[in-house]
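quick one
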Amino acid sequence: MAEASNFIEQIVVEDLSNGKVGAVQTRFPPEPNGYLHIGHAKSMFVNFGTAEKFGGKCNLFFDDTNPSKEKTEFVDAIRADIRWLGYSWEREVYASDFFDRIYEYAERLVKEGKAFVCDLSADEIRATRGTLTEPGVESPYRKRSAEENLQLFREMKAGKFADGEKCLRAKIDMSSPNVNLRDPVIYRILRATHHRTGDKWCVYPMYDFAHPICDYLQGVTHSLCTLEFEDHRPLYDWVGVSLGFTPKPRQIEFARLNLTNLVMSKRYLKKLVEDGAVHGWDDPRMPTLAGLRNRGIPAAAIRDFCERAGVAKANSECEISYFEAVVRDYLNAHAPRAMAVVDPLKLTISNYEGTEEVAFDINQTDPDAGTRKIAFGKTLYIERSDFSLDPPPKYFRGKIGGYMRLKNAYIVRCDEAVVNENGEVTEVKCTYFPESRSGDDHSGIKAKGVVHWVNADTAVDTEIRQYEHLLRDADYAGQDFTERLNLESEHIIYGKAEPLLATAGDGTAFQLMRTGYYKKCCENGKLVLSEIVSLKDNFNK
Ligand code: ATP
Ligand code: MG
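structure w/ adenosine-5'-triphosphate:
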């Protein structure tokens, strides 16, 4: 048997070793009311990952007990995102598949005197629930006979009452220290068209009642969920025991994944989309899996991150820079290198004529990746920020009279800057030193700065997109989400790229040397390079 690497796996190993369960069955339980985000990747890692590791199975379980918010569009997006992440499910199951069975179980509780129909309004129920220090007050309807309850419950189902006029409550204990056990509502009346069952039902089970039943009917052995359900576990167990489930699924809670500088709750993400603060659910700044995919982040890097972040019993917040460091590590090992310049500045080599090819490692971390050749010439573009008319101390890139190396090519000296009427530099004129060629430098000239370049004869115009985080830094942490929102987090800059970038496959990730990791794509015939993650590692390991 595989070795346990976290507390959930330890429980699984125990249960398998002592024969309590024959084979592991888990489920990943999204509610189809939005797109999956990176927090769900963690849940998938736990649910699919644990089953996979111990030779078990994991179902895709759509928790669709809330008809007013659920849509088929979300079901389709969720499926696509799970596949993209590299997981496959055993069965695709919906809570709504079990609506008849759940209703039958509810009738059984009613017949056995374990549930009653209550006429209190939602507000009245809330008001009589008590607090953490005070017990709740029993409903005046709690003493209804089983026969009366059964008749009323059937009438609820038949549509005799208005929405919210009555509900079904479990009869447990109004003075329980656990508020969830104070006669919780388990069925409500709601006239809403369900995305799968249409108008068949006007009563819907509550999550806490439906979930243990659906787990049991699927044969789930370990129901893995996040910590906010810890207080609900006694109710989960009450349902299982009251309905005589054997073997009873076991609920185990783990900590949610929280990342700094990101909003993770679907409710907020939905608001960003609806308010037009982002381009859509798949905006590259969104923490949705669709957004991360569109950003160019490889699925393997997300899985790797979930594994490295670990499975814990206590909530904490993970630095976004840690996630970025994992992505960077992955791309450093896998992304080919290329050159593009942001905000290009023309550079002319006065004493150079003709053209020649210079060699670059495709990926210097991968000896098998090989090299390729790039055409060098008289007229190039460098980045505007790599030349300064008024250089600060220790500026080793382009400055008048200074020497710098053009990456993998020659050392040049900047002789003259052409300046337009606005005082902007429009061109830099240089002299190159033929003996300084990279790999065969016998010029004796020292050049501390190295700048990258593209050849003006072959360069392609490109749009370069750079991003900041959607939420401002931790300094703003205490503030409301809308205050922290960084609306100016997308920057569009003009650039020039080497021709390889125009011909590479759409979606390919490159390391643009000295700039960062970028995804290439083509939009309306135009080359777009959009930032995946910056080059600099500012995470302190
Ligand atoms: P949200 O608050 O973002 O809407 P949710 O918990 O309502 O999230 P569900 O669709 O109900 O979203 O979640 C499916 C599963 O994913 C649940 O088991 C939930 O606990 C888990 N999950 C959701 N967010 C996270 C997270 N940040 N970290 C780990 N697991 C998560
Ligand atoms: Mg939810």
